[in-house]
Task: inverse folding
Protein backbone atom coordinates (compact mmCIF):
# COMPACT_ATOMS: atom_id res chain seq x y z
CA UNK A 1 0.00 0.00 0.00
CA UNK A 2 1.10 3.57 -0.67
CA UNK A 3 2.16 5.66 2.32
CA UNK A 4 -0.15 8.56 3.12
CA UNK A 5 2.95 10.81 3.00
CA UNK A 6 3.31 10.40 -0.78
CA UNK A 7 2.30 13.49 -2.76
CA UNK A 8 2.11 14.11 -6.52
CA UNK A 9 3.26 17.46 -7.89
CA UNK A 10 4.64 18.91 -11.15
CA UNK A 11 8.38 18.44 -11.61
CA UNK A 12 10.58 21.51 -11.22
CA UNK A 13 14.07 22.35 -12.45
CA UNK A 14 15.33 21.99 -8.87
CA UNK A 15 14.34 18.27 -9.04
CA UNK A 16 16.91 17.48 -11.72
CA UNK A 17 19.44 15.74 -9.46
CA UNK A 18 16.88 13.61 -7.67
CA UNK A 19 15.28 12.58 -10.97
CA UNK A 20 18.73 11.78 -12.37
CA UNK A 21 19.36 9.57 -9.34
CA UNK A 22 16.15 7.66 -10.03
CA UNK A 23 17.09 7.19 -13.69
CA UNK A 24 20.65 6.04 -13.16
CA UNK A 25 20.56 4.23 -9.81
CA UNK A 26 17.14 2.56 -9.62
CA UNK A 27 16.28 -0.73 -11.30
CA UNK A 28 12.75 0.10 -12.45
CA UNK A 29 13.11 2.63 -15.27
CA UNK A 30 11.28 3.05 -18.56
CA UNK A 31 12.96 5.46 -20.98
CA UNK A 32 11.54 6.32 -24.38
CA UNK A 33 13.73 5.63 -27.42
CA UNK A 34 14.57 9.26 -27.90
CA UNK A 35 17.28 11.62 -29.14
CA UNK A 36 16.61 13.87 -26.16
CA UNK A 37 17.31 12.67 -22.63
CA UNK A 38 14.47 12.59 -20.07
CA UNK A 39 16.11 15.44 -18.18
CA UNK A 40 16.02 17.65 -21.29
CA UNK A 41 12.21 17.52 -21.11
CA UNK A 42 12.21 18.89 -17.54
CA UNK A 43 10.09 22.03 -17.45
CA UNK A 44 7.57 20.69 -19.97
CA UNK A 45 3.92 20.16 -19.11
CA UNK A 46 2.82 16.70 -17.95
CA UNK A 47 6.06 15.98 -16.08
CA UNK A 48 5.21 14.72 -12.60
CA UNK A 49 7.00 13.48 -9.50
CA UNK A 50 5.83 11.48 -6.50
CA UNK A 51 7.39 12.86 -3.34
CA UNK A 52 7.73 11.43 0.16
CA UNK A 53 8.65 14.10 2.72
CA UNK A 54 10.87 15.99 0.27
CA UNK A 55 12.38 12.91 -1.38
CA UNK A 56 11.31 12.01 -4.91
CA UNK A 57 10.43 8.33 -5.11
CA UNK A 58 8.93 8.18 -8.63
CA UNK A 59 8.64 10.24 -11.79
CA UNK A 60 6.40 10.17 -14.88
CA UNK A 61 7.05 12.36 -17.94
CA UNK A 62 4.71 12.42 -20.93
CA UNK A 63 5.18 15.86 -22.56
CA UNK A 64 3.55 16.63 -25.90
CA UNK A 65 6.14 17.24 -28.59
CA UNK A 66 3.40 17.35 -31.23
CA UNK A 67 -0.14 18.56 -30.43
CA UNK A 68 -2.32 15.70 -29.29
CA UNK A 69 0.50 13.15 -28.94
CA UNK A 70 2.11 12.45 -25.54
CA UNK A 71 4.82 9.80 -25.57
CA UNK A 72 5.68 8.44 -22.14
CA UNK A 73 9.32 9.43 -22.12
CA UNK A 74 10.10 8.44 -18.55
CA UNK A 75 8.65 6.35 -15.77
CA UNK A 76 10.98 5.49 -12.92
CA UNK A 77 10.44 4.55 -9.33
CA UNK A 78 12.18 3.23 -6.26
CA UNK A 79 11.95 -0.59 -6.57
CA UNK A 80 11.11 -0.90 -2.88
CA UNK A 81 7.68 0.44 -3.87
CA UNK A 82 4.99 -1.25 -5.98
CA UNK A 83 5.01 -0.27 -9.66
CA UNK A 84 1.25 -0.46 -10.29
CA UNK A 85 0.46 1.40 -7.07
CA UNK A 86 3.06 4.10 -7.83
CA UNK A 87 1.85 4.47 -11.43
CA UNK A 88 -1.78 5.15 -10.49
CA UNK A 89 -1.42 8.56 -8.78
CA UNK A 90 1.12 9.80 -11.32
CA UNK A 91 -0.97 8.68 -14.28
CA UNK A 92 -4.13 10.17 -12.77
CA UNK A 93 -2.39 13.55 -12.55
CA UNK A 94 -0.96 13.32 -16.07
CA UNK A 95 -4.23 12.11 -17.60
CA UNK A 96 -6.22 14.88 -15.89
CA UNK A 97 -3.76 17.49 -17.11
CA UNK A 98 -3.98 16.24 -20.69
CA UNK A 99 -7.78 16.14 -20.53
CA UNK A 100 -7.91 19.78 -19.38
CA UNK A 101 -5.63 20.90 -22.23
CA UNK A 102 -7.50 19.35 -25.13
CA UNK A 103 -6.90 15.62 -24.77
CA UNK A 104 -4.21 13.49 -26.38
CA UNK A 105 -3.09 10.06 -27.39
CA UNK A 106 -0.69 8.84 -24.71
CA UNK A 107 1.71 6.27 -26.13
CA UNK A 108 4.63 4.14 -25.05
CA UNK A 109 7.05 1.68 -26.62
CA UNK A 110 7.19 -0.79 -23.75
CA UNK A 111 10.40 -2.80 -23.93
CA UNK A 112 10.33 -4.23 -20.41
CA UNK A 113 7.68 -6.78 -19.38
CA UNK A 114 7.03 -5.12 -16.02
CA UNK A 115 6.09 -1.88 -17.80
CA UNK A 116 3.90 -3.75 -20.27
CA UNK A 117 2.01 -5.16 -17.27
CA UNK A 118 1.58 -1.69 -15.77
CA UNK A 119 0.17 -0.26 -19.00
CA UNK A 120 -2.13 -3.21 -19.69
CA UNK A 121 -3.61 -3.02 -16.21
CA UNK A 122 -4.44 0.69 -16.63
CA UNK A 123 -6.38 0.63 -19.87
CA UNK A 124 -3.60 1.01 -22.45
CA UNK A 125 -4.04 -1.13 -25.56
CA UNK A 126 -1.50 -2.49 -28.04
CA UNK A 127 -1.65 -0.36 -31.20
CA UNK A 128 1.32 -1.69 -33.17
CA UNK A 129 4.55 -3.61 -32.73
CA UNK A 130 8.04 -2.39 -33.54
CA UNK A 131 10.44 -4.88 -35.12
CA UNK A 132 14.23 -4.67 -35.42
CA UNK A 133 16.03 -5.58 -38.63
CA UNK A 134 19.75 -5.79 -39.37
CA UNK A 135 21.97 -5.64 -42.45
CA UNK A 136 25.43 -7.21 -42.28
CA UNK A 137 27.54 -6.52 -45.36
CA UNK A 138 24.99 -8.01 -47.76
CA UNK A 139 25.84 -7.60 -51.48
CA UNK A 140 23.91 -4.83 -53.22
CA UNK A 141 22.79 -4.26 -56.78
CA UNK A 142 24.17 -1.16 -58.54
CA UNK A 143 22.41 2.03 -57.53
CA UNK A 144 19.58 3.10 -59.80
CA UNK A 145 20.04 6.65 -61.06
CA UNK A 146 16.94 8.76 -60.42
CA UNK A 147 16.45 11.54 -62.93
CA UNK A 148 15.93 14.94 -61.43
CA UNK A 149 16.79 13.78 -57.88
CA UNK A 150 20.10 14.58 -56.22
CA UNK A 151 21.47 13.02 -53.02
CA UNK A 152 23.77 15.05 -50.80
CA UNK A 153 24.85 15.40 -47.16
CA UNK A 154 22.28 17.09 -44.95
CA UNK A 155 23.06 20.60 -43.71
CA UNK A 156 21.78 22.26 -40.55
CA UNK A 157 19.99 24.78 -42.77
CA UNK A 158 17.96 21.89 -44.25
CA UNK A 159 16.25 20.99 -40.97
CA UNK A 160 13.05 23.07 -41.39
CA UNK A 161 12.48 21.44 -44.79
CA UNK A 162 13.38 18.04 -43.35
CA UNK A 163 10.74 18.55 -40.65
CA UNK A 164 8.17 19.29 -43.37
CA UNK A 165 9.07 16.04 -45.13
CA UNK A 166 8.72 14.19 -41.83
CA UNK A 167 5.26 15.63 -41.22
CA UNK A 168 4.17 14.68 -44.73
CA UNK A 169 5.50 11.11 -44.49
CA UNK A 170 4.16 10.04 -41.09
CA UNK A 171 0.89 10.04 -39.21
CA UNK A 172 0.85 12.31 -36.12
CA UNK A 173 1.86 9.59 -33.65
CA UNK A 174 5.20 9.08 -35.40
CA UNK A 175 6.13 12.64 -36.41
CA UNK A 176 9.20 14.39 -35.03
CA UNK A 177 9.45 18.12 -34.43
CA UNK A 178 12.18 20.25 -35.96
CA UNK A 179 13.74 20.52 -32.49
CA UNK A 180 14.03 16.74 -32.15
CA UNK A 181 15.33 16.36 -35.69
CA UNK A 182 17.97 18.98 -34.93
CA UNK A 183 19.03 16.90 -31.92
CA UNK A 184 19.17 13.79 -34.11
CA UNK A 185 21.24 15.64 -36.71
CA UNK A 186 23.85 16.61 -34.12
CA UNK A 187 24.18 12.93 -33.12
CA UNK A 188 24.34 11.54 -36.67
CA UNK A 189 27.26 9.69 -38.20
CA UNK A 190 25.58 10.05 -41.59
CA UNK A 191 22.67 12.28 -42.63
CA UNK A 192 21.62 12.82 -46.24
CA UNK A 193 18.80 14.41 -48.20
CA UNK A 194 17.22 13.76 -51.58
CA UNK A 195 16.21 16.90 -53.42
CA UNK A 196 14.64 17.99 -56.68
CA UNK A 197 14.37 21.41 -58.25
CA UNK A 198 11.38 21.96 -55.94
CA UNK A 199 13.33 21.20 -52.76
CA UNK A 200 13.96 18.33 -50.36
CA UNK A 201 11.73 15.29 -50.90
CA UNK A 202 13.41 12.73 -48.60
CA UNK A 203 16.06 12.26 -45.97
CA UNK A 204 17.81 9.77 -43.70
CA UNK A 205 19.54 10.22 -40.35
CA UNK A 206 21.76 7.44 -38.99
CA UNK A 207 23.57 7.23 -35.68
CA UNK A 208 26.56 5.18 -34.55
CA UNK A 209 26.78 2.42 -31.97
CA UNK A 210 29.46 -0.08 -30.86
CA UNK A 211 28.15 -2.70 -33.32
CA UNK A 212 28.02 -0.37 -36.33
CA UNK A 213 25.27 2.09 -37.22
CA UNK A 214 21.52 2.51 -36.80
CA UNK A 215 19.20 4.00 -39.42
CA UNK A 216 17.27 6.14 -36.98
CA UNK A 217 14.99 7.90 -39.46
CA UNK A 218 14.06 7.55 -43.12
CA UNK A 219 11.26 9.58 -44.67
CA UNK A 220 10.03 10.51 -48.14
CA UNK A 221 7.51 13.25 -48.83
CA UNK A 222 4.09 11.76 -49.57
CA UNK A 223 3.90 12.96 -53.17
CA UNK A 224 7.43 11.65 -53.92
CA UNK A 225 6.83 8.12 -52.65
CA UNK A 226 6.95 5.10 -54.99
CA UNK A 227 9.67 6.77 -57.08
CA UNK A 228 12.66 4.97 -55.61
CA UNK A 229 13.74 7.81 -53.31
CA UNK A 230 13.80 5.64 -50.19
CA UNK A 231 15.81 2.93 -51.96
CA UNK A 232 18.29 5.52 -53.22
CA UNK A 233 18.78 6.94 -49.74
CA UNK A 234 19.37 3.48 -48.22
CA UNK A 235 21.75 2.47 -51.04
CA UNK A 236 23.71 5.69 -50.63
CA UNK A 237 23.83 5.27 -46.84
CA UNK A 238 25.23 1.74 -47.05
CA UNK A 239 27.81 2.83 -49.61
CA UNK A 240 28.94 5.66 -47.34
CA UNK A 241 29.14 3.34 -44.32
CA UNK A 242 31.19 0.82 -46.29
CA UNK A 243 33.81 3.45 -47.08
CA UNK A 244 34.29 3.77 -43.32
CA UNK A 245 34.33 -0.04 -42.86
CA UNK A 246 30.98 -0.02 -41.07
CA UNK A 247 29.44 -3.35 -42.08
CA UNK A 248 26.48 -3.63 -39.73
CA UNK A 249 23.34 -1.49 -39.91
CA UNK A 250 20.15 -1.83 -37.87
CA UNK A 251 16.73 -0.25 -38.32
CA UNK A 252 13.35 -0.28 -36.57
CA UNK A 253 9.98 -0.21 -38.29
CA UNK A 254 6.38 -1.13 -37.58
CA UNK A 255 5.53 -4.81 -37.99
CA UNK A 256 2.52 -3.89 -40.15
CA UNK A 257 4.42 -1.44 -42.40
CA UNK A 258 4.68 -3.72 -45.41
CA UNK A 259 6.17 -1.03 -47.66
CA UNK A 260 8.99 -0.31 -45.23
CA UNK A 261 9.67 -3.99 -44.59
CA UNK A 262 9.82 -4.74 -48.32
CA UNK A 263 12.30 -1.89 -48.85
CA UNK A 264 14.71 -3.11 -46.19
CA UNK A 265 14.40 -6.75 -47.16
CA UNK A 266 15.41 -5.89 -50.74
CA UNK A 267 18.73 -4.70 -49.30
CA UNK A 268 19.22 -7.89 -47.32
CA UNK A 269 18.00 -6.67 -43.94
CA UNK A 270 16.71 -9.55 -41.83
CA UNK A 271 14.58 -9.54 -38.70
CA UNK A 272 16.55 -10.11 -35.52
CA UNK A 273 13.54 -11.54 -33.68
CA UNK A 274 13.31 -8.53 -31.36
CA UNK A 275 9.96 -6.77 -31.26
CA UNK A 276 8.30 -4.38 -28.85
CA UNK A 277 4.63 -3.44 -28.39
CA UNK A 278 3.41 0.13 -28.83
CA UNK A 279 0.68 0.91 -26.29
CA UNK A 280 -1.83 3.73 -26.74
CA UNK A 281 -4.43 5.33 -24.45
CA UNK A 282 -6.89 7.94 -25.69
CA UNK A 283 -7.31 10.81 -23.21
CA UNK A 284 -10.55 12.63 -24.04
CA UNK A 285 -10.82 16.41 -24.04
CA UNK A 286 -12.51 17.80 -20.93
CA UNK A 287 -11.81 21.48 -21.44
Result:
Amino acid sequence: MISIDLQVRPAESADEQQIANLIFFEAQVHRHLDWRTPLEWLGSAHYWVLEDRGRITAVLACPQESPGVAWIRLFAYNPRLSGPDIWSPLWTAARSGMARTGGAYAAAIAIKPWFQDVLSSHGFEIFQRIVLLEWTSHPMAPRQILRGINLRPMLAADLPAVAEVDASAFEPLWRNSCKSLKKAYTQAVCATVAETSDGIVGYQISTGNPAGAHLARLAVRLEAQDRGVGSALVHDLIARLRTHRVLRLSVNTQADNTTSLALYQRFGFARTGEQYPVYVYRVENES
The two ends are 33 Å apart (CA to CA). The mean pLDDT is 92.
